[in-house]
Specification:
Elements (H helix, E strand, L loop, with lengths): L31 E6 L4 H7 L6 E7 L2 E6 L4 H5 L5 E5 L2 H8 L28 H13 L5 E8 L5 E7 L10 E5 L7 H19 L3 H7 L3 E5 L4 H9 L53 H15 L3 E9 L3 E4 L12 H19 L4 E4 H4 L7 H7 L5 E7 L16 H18 L1
Parallel strand pairs: 7-8, 7-9, 9-12, 10-11
Antiparallel strand pairs: 1-3, 1-4, 2-3, 5-6, 6-8, 10-12
Helix pairs in contact: 5-6, 5-12, 9-12
Subcellular location: Secreted
Keywords: Carboxypeptidase, Hydrolase, Metalloprotease, Protease, Secreted, Signal, Virulence, Zinc, Zymogen
Organism: Colletotrichum gloeosporioides
Length: about 425
């Protein structure tokens, strides 16, 4: 997610963006999170809270501003009389509850042909367990899958994923290509992508007609965590960290927004920041993060092979299905009308599960401008037929924002699986 264009909140606690790996963990104990109704006047709100030590963590449109307020400033903030809704009574307590990981017991034996237990989706998990979970999925689908390593992060962690295929052998069909956890704090995305992967494998093994038709038609290339350094950092130091962990010369601030670093219209103004301390910092040059070097090379290999039929970059939050383009609010993909039909029907299918409503449309005009984003590159440079961002739960003032309760993992995943079954059968 992105801060409102022009809404620069230079606030005391926002310096968390410059923390080093040696700093103690940021707990957010006693912080209270609010959604402020801006009524399209964000600058007025900015002026009113300028002397409050607020941490903005989701400013995704002109209608509201989500902020976390430390205990010592809550009374001062509430006296401003702003129109607010409480998102978290105690952000630190909610983070602690969310971070109570269930133990994962890998069978550790590739000869045991049994998928991991679905209880995996009852809680969030440590980074190392996510990697083991993917290994276990692959080991229990050996004839139709392989582990893939798209490359390495700045910290040397593997961009680990899985390649699935059906009849005809591996690499023989157009690609379905999924990314999760591009932004480190968006934990729900890795869980949802893993659930979709699980359902593809389980359905194929059970001869589910819908799943077999999908896997026999496409090769799936799935990377559940493409920002492993940032994700690991959210579990050890700062739950609300967004970027990667790459230092920059001349700045004490750490990290680049990987989803502003793709080499497609990267140089255009307005869709990213040139400030290394910004959450949307785009880097010194297009594609200059280690993660992007790896992702671009991997993407280009898929594009030059059998082509990319569908790309989805999973994010949270807001409940959006976002189509190309992000760099220009008047730009459209050549097959825009067809993509709008697919997106509308996907949103309708998602809503049939729990009534969750997804807004859909071109990224820039529906949400905000982005330059150097994955769907723009996949569409404009890699030639993907369909390339979307999907922003997961929640949307309204309730639900947890980035700190989504574990009880919402399965509903989020199930509704996306139902939406994907429609999309994959019709794309």
């Amino acid at each position: 997610m992105k801060f409102l264009a022009g809404l620069s909140l230079v606030l005391p606690l926002a310096s968390a963006a410059a923390v080093t790996p040696l700093e103690k963990k940021i707990t957010y104990d006693g912080f209270k999170a609010f959604r402020i109704a801006t009524h399209n006047d964000a600058f007025s709100i900015k002026a009113k809270i300028a002397n409050i030590a607020a941490i903005p963590f989701n400013l995704d449109n002109s209608e509201h501003l989500d902020v976390a307020i430390p205990a010592g400033d809550i009374s001062k903030f509430e006296k401003l009389g702003l129109e607010t809704t409480v998102l978290h009574e105690d952000l630190g307590a909610d983070i602690a509850e969310e971070g109570t990981f269930a133990a994962y017991e890998s069978n550790g034996d590739a000869t045991i042909q049994a998928l991991p237990d679905l209880s995996w989706f009852n809680s969030y998990h440590a980074f190392a367990d996510h990697q083991q979970f993917i290994r276990d999925l692959q080991s229990n689908f050996p004839s139709n899958s392989e582990l893939v390593n798209a490359g390495s992060s700045y910290g040397g962690r593997s961009l680990l994923g899985i390649h699935l295929w059906g009849s005809g052998g591996k690499g023989s069909k157009p690609a379905i290509y999924w990314h999760g956890t591009v932004h480190a704090r968006e934990w729900i995305t890795s869980m949802v992508v893993e659930y979709l992967t699980y359902q593809l494998i389980d359905g194929y093994q059970k001869n589910d007609a819908t799943v077999k038709a999908i896997l026999d038609k496409y090769d799936f290339y799935i990377l559940p965590i493409v920002n492993p350094d940032g994700f690991a950092y959210t579990q050890t130091n700062d739950r609300l960290w967004r970027k990667n962990r790459q230092p920059r010369s001349g700045s004490t601030c750490i990290g680049t927004d990987i989803n502003r670093n793709w080499p497609f219209n990267w140089q255009l103004p307005g869709g990213a920041s040139t400030n290394p301390c910004s959450e949307t910092y785009k880097g010194v040059a297009a594609g200059d993060t280690p993660e992007m070097v790896a992702l671009k090379a991997y993407t280009d290999r898929l594009a030059s092979g059998n082509g990319i039929k569908l790309f989805i970059d999973w994010h949270s939050y807001g409940q959006y299905i976002l189509l190309p383009y992000g760099y220009d609010c008047s730009a459209r993909a050549s097959n825009h009308a067809r993509q709008m039909t697919l997106a509308g029907n996907t949103a309708t299918t998602i809503a049939q599960s729990y009534g969750t409503r997804f807004t859909y449309g071109p990224s820039c005009s529906t949400l905000y401008a982005t330059t150097g984003s994955a769907p723009d590159y996949l569409t404009g440079a890699a030639g993907a037929e369909v390339a979307w961002t999907i922003e997961l739960r929640p949307s309204g003032s309730a639900g947890g924002g980035f700190v989504l309760p574990a009880a919402q993992i399965l509903p989020s995943a199930i509704e996306q699986w139902n939406g994907m079954k429609y999309l994959l059968a019709n794309v």
